[in-house]
Amino acid sequence: MKNKDTMKKLTDRDPETKSPDLVADNLERLKALFPELVTEGQDGASVNVDVLKQLIGDHTVTDAEEKYGLNWHGKRRARQLTLTPSTGTLRPFPADSVDWDTTQNIMIEGDNLEVLKLLQKSYAGKVKLIYIDPPYNTGSDLVYSDDFRDNIANYQMLTGQRTSDGRRLSTNTEASGRFHTEWLSMIFPRLRLARNLLASSGVILISIDDHELHDLRSVCDEVFGAENFVATLVWEKGRKNDARLISVGHEYLLLYARSLSQLREQRTVWREEKPGARELWDEYVRLRDRIGEDNTAIESALTAWFNGLPKNHPARKWTRYKRVDKHGPWRDFDISWPGGGGPRYDVLHPATKKPCKVPERGWIFSTPEVMQRQIKLGLVEFRADHTEPPFRKAHIRPLDFELLEQPFDANQDEPSETSRDDDEELATQVRGSYFYKQSQVSVKYLRKLLGAKVFDNPKDHIELARLVDYLTAGDKEALVVDFFAGSGSTGEAVWERNNQDSGSRRFILVQLPEQLDPAVKEQKAAADYCDTLGRPRNIAELTKERLRRASSKIKNENPMFAADLGFRVFKLDSSNIQAWDPNRADLAASLEAHAKNLKLDRSEQDILFELLLKLGLDLTVPITTKKMGGTKKKHDVYSIGGGVLLVCLSDAIARDDIEPVAMGIIRWHGEQAPAGESTVVFRDSAFAEDVAKTNLAAILNQHGLPTVRSL
């Protein structure tokens, strides 16, 4: 391995200290596919539009011609916002968090446009479900205001970090012409960035009302591809009696896949447990434990149980499942080939020894041999004699072949002769595009949880939990993202689903710290509530409080639930790396302030997590610490991700400590043996002279650590 013998100093101008440069990445992809398409010039690489037209077989269309699609004033600027790298960072706030040291969940306070940019390196292609409930364009102020030149500075000003007037984030009015254009310019770049986070089998679900459904569908067709549209769900929440004309009590949920073709190739099937099936199975298990293997006695007890249920009990729909065998409750099911034209062969009745009547559509099992195997397994039930076809069994907890939608084939795996585990799925169904859940249920729940009504229309976390499970195909380790977190319903929904099936799903929530003004009638209750908590008056504080209380509630109600009920809090801020921003009136003071590359008011933890973001590591990756160095002074060295990143942020490393620190890092790296190349980072100002820095880098290079950086 060639030794570099250098320690590169990272500045605010280096690509490592920014979010990904999407323009450069797009150019590289185009260049890899079509080298002749990208040309190099004095101003950098550019795309030859004429060549592009030739490559796609278009020799006539000009830029001036009209094209099908959604356009609005400001779309070009919105696209630029997507492509502009962020120079911000996410600062850790353990004091605001729950179970900081162990949790895998994340709550981020900040502008979601910048946060989505910062998450690109660490989470691209890893998210199974994105659910968002963006602000609807109903004529009220839109509280997102992006700045192409410096969105971090703009964010700090708008959230009161640079001013103390406590004003709202933006003052967009009808006169600004933003009824649709401002909303589209807000949502467009965020969806483009969100798409990058989705896994190939991931999906995005967006709550929306009538005002922007049409435009949102057009935007999503452009961002995700019209071919990846899955469905529009309708959530009916109840009739509004104060409506003058029509009560519009529903909202829509627009569903797109990252790649619908990928879902089809993977033969992904979305199903949910049928209501009442769980109650029936639990009663069967209770009876089996009490009665034993006497299936006839269990059948009688199940009949009595059904008869005693209230009329509206969901399990009453399962009264046909009164028969019982070693696999559990079952009902008779058609044994004929779907659609007709199935195979016809003789099946002898076990009592009369004569061929049973063949169904008009033929047998569902492809060959006599397959039929005999099913009979032997006890999965075919004969009638009193051979004059009627037998029927097959359909169990409340389906066996393998019962889950197949196509006729049973001899090459398919057969069901086990042993009973299935209690953890396996019950009878399932595909969801319809319409569902009902009264909105006041979630309002009353959250009011009770928080002890006050601070949100008017919180999302129902129970319904969201069902959707989380359904749209991730039961993936118990799915990563769920919500970058309009609001009341935090999505976070509690993930916990709720984990509580039900002992899953380890995790979430990333993002919420703008939108200022709350007690002088505004609609905000007074929420602002006063923040005052009672002793916290700043903004919505992000309410999000965090809801998560804290939901976590405590689940722990109290289910002490045996050992899953992750914590969350790490991060807040958006400018980079820890100091940019050159001189005070022209006092250049001497500016030079002194910028003598060090890192900002003086930032902690080592701030710097560590910026490194995680900029180097593409998970924000919940394990971090361990060891002290290394000579006899006079020990230096803290952090190992991140099992040695993928090794960091020493000491203010000063003496010449005598250079070799002990280097050898300590080398030994620790060898003990951890991470896969792939590791990066080692030091504080640039820790070295009194360049020779010491060069010597340290040379020692690390010679022992297999070629990537050494300084901040």
Q: Keywords for this structure?
A:
32% helix, disordered N terminus, six-stranded mixed beta sheet, 24 strands, Rossmann fold, 711 residues
What Rg do the Cα atoms give?
Answer: 31 Å
Task: Count up the domains.
Answer: 4
Contiguous runs where pLDDT drops below 50 for at least 5 residues:
1-5, 163-178, 408-424, 590-595
Average pLDDT rating: 84
Strand order of the largest sheet: 4-19-5-18-17-6-7-9-8-16
Number of helices: 21
Main beta sheet strand tally, sense and closure: 10 strands, mixed
Number of strand elements: 24
Report the span from N to C terminus. 25 Å
User: How does the overall form come out from the CA principal axes?
Assistant: globular
Text of the CATH class of the largest domain: Alpha Beta
Assigned CATH architecture of the largest domain: 3-Layer(aba) Sandwich
What oligomeric assembly is this protein in? single chain
Content of β-strand: 15-25%
Q: At the fourth CATH level, what is the homologous superfamily of the largest domain?
A: Vaccinia Virus protein VP39
Helix content: 25-40%
CATH fold name of the largest domain, please?
Rossmann fold
